[in-house]
Amino acid sequence: MTAMSRKRPAILDKQWWSRYGASLRFAFYCLLHPFDGYWDLTHEKRGSMAAANTIMFFVLLTRILTLEFTNFQFMSVNWEYVNVFQECLSLLLPLIVFVTANWCWTTLFDGKGTFKDIYVGMCYSILPYPLIQLPLILLSNVITTEEGAFYYVFAALSLIWAVYLIVIAMMEIHDYSVGKTFLFTIMSLFGMLIIIFLLLLFLSLISDAISYFVSLYREIVFRLF
Amino acid sequence: MRTKGMRRIAALLLTAALLLLSTTAFAADGLQTRYTYTYDYWFDIRESPDAYRVKTVLNSTMLGLDKPMRSPQGMFVSGDYIYICDTGNNRLLEVKHENSEYKLVRVIDTVIGGTPENFSTPQDVFVDKAGNIYVCDTNNNRVVMMDKDCNFIKSYEKPTDETFDQNLSFLPSKLVVDVSGRVFALCKNVNKGLIKYEADGEFTGYIGANKVKFDMIDYIWKLFSTKEQRSKQESFVPTEYDNIYMDKKGFIYAVTATFAVEELLSDTANPIRKLNAIGNDILVKSNVRQPPIGELDWAEDADINGPSRLIDITVLDNETYVALDRVRGRLFGYDTRGIMFWAFGGSGNSDGYFLNAVAIDHMGNDLMVLDSIECSVTIFTPTEYCNLIYTANDQYLRGEYDASADTWREVLKLNGNYDQAFIGVGRSLLRQEKYGEAMEYFRYPRDWKNYGEAFRLYRKEWVEQNIGWIFALVAAAMVVPLVVGKVKKIKAEVNKS
Question: Complex ipTM above 0.85?
């Protein structure tokens, strides 16, 4: 069977589609039953990379739709200075860096999750964001600032829920205790800083090296000709 | 061949665009074209048609003075007369506006019967309705009052009250007089506010003192610093005012340029204040993001940077107030709600630009600005554009909302970037209960306060109009599941039996 599915492209494979649908639906189960859900997600292989990417896509889409269609009473966006790709990256990069940092720590301290597991868990955990923010766009257009409390409460809720799910997901995926989860969540945040620092250092060194060779070339050219 | 032609066209277009760009930034004479401007919601500068044009510039030659002016500091306009304090020459100049000409009437340099009879660096002048002239005779340590023929009436001297530090010399620099003859004077080195004299010349205290602010961080800092350090630090000194103006209703408008930049950013500096009879600041600031502080774009990389230092203020008869910025030589006009109408001016030598603007006043809607280095009075007259703004504002205040909306639309034709015009049309539409249209006008300048108001009413109206449908839908949503459930139940029972 595996040989068959490997030959046939996934898009034509009925089984693949049903599995994809099931894994996507499973994300909704995880929202309300996080302890149970995230355990099954990796240990019972009920999640999938494709579903995770789909959720990620909806998160990015929601972010851009929020910028464009939220009523200006609640969000003032100066489109002159908005770069859509930058907006997407500003969500994606921290997530990827967090996943990397988390993976780095947890592989050393007997976490059970692989890099892929962590990524899938993360993506499943941020489902509340599109789920709440998309209806909020509509809501923002039918209320005034005086009733803005509704808007802000729900907007905050979407983030708090997501953070809560992320913590639970990390706990279940790595089979950690509560204390260890919190410790490694904080360690991951610290790890993010180290990764960013190393990246910046690397980039600046590379750019220095390049500029050195460029100036060397110029020097030679100016002396010889 | 074809691509070559295309490329050539593209290159031509590019050069044309570049040329256009370079010419819009600077006019042919190298001066910036940005003379009059407003701010949009994002604090970006929007060029605007000129609100005021230079009508004429009065200087010593034009006035026919045998001895040219020397660093004049104060100016006052009463009716058709302009009084200029020619501080450096210890005299006053009285100029009359007649048949659209400005002519020197007389030079006042003596107080007949006063002790002493001459002035010593007079810094400000005030003329009341009866024609009595009050002069801040700074270095003679007095405010002198004389009648219109310069006969000495009385002088207001240094208060003997113990609230006035007797070691300080009494240096009155600016003054206003209210309708009942009370004198309010600003003194150098006095930070308790304005010194107030009753009409009979008796000192009766101070008004408008700054509240002394207590800063916890400063206090802790002082606990740990040595005596020498403490003495070097600035003590908690309330700010002094730089200039005052009394409007038609008797409110004193004051400006101050002594503040910390952080205070300005957190909008606690209040460089423009409107003082009531007991000295409280009652200036309305309806736009919290862009309060009336003068320049908002501080241009950190430019030669002239930092916040505005307002040096004088005047209030037109329609309650528009115009503040003068010493740093940039710019004028900022605000409406009664503290929202900027326009800003114009600049630093320089040509007409309409200033080297050291020190005083501003108005005659009708004409504005006059005194420059102490150029020794000239620049007289500005409002353009059609500015007059339309004033008319629209007046019409709104009088309750003529239809007319006001039409006038604001005229303004929009002249300046499509003008947020206030959009808000003006919107406000009138709101009063006319055209909520949907009003919303559109509030949306563009992002006036969410008014938009919220319009939207709330629009929504109410909409709900009232469609209440039948809404009820029907809600009822359907409640009844249909019930019916469906019942039907299913019956079906199940039928099937069972």
Answer: no
